[in-house]
Amino acid sequence: MATTMNLVCVVFLCSLIVGGNCQPCTEQNLKITQSKTGKMVQNKPEWNVKITNDCPCSQLDVKLSCDAFQTVEDIDSSILSKSGSECLVNNGQPIYPNTDFNFNYAWDNSFSFKPVHSQVGCS
């Protein structure tokens, strides 16, 4: 009986070690904050958007809701590319675990970006 219990404990601990880094992550693990940079572009305040991936895995093909998003500041399409009501971030490339991805735009008020899609890449 003790041998069986020891085996069960070993299997359980191994599953925690192997599966511990593959926590289920979603686009909700992408935290978005914004702040004014202090710069003005065409008489509109510039905003810095910071997307933080707090998932232990990379997230790629990140898309934000951006219906009605406007800016007077050019944003390189490899950084933020609008298609319909969604914006593709970083050309679909990964946002790595515990790192930030930043971009700037200029408009009268901050825009409420929300993550709507991502693919999780755990290895």
UniProtKB/TrEMBL annotation:
GO terms for biological process: cell fate determination. The keyword Signal applies. The keyword Signal applies. It comes from the Eukaryota. Keywords: Signal. Residues 1-22 form the signal peptide. This is Beta-1,3-N-Acetylglucosaminyltransferase family protein.
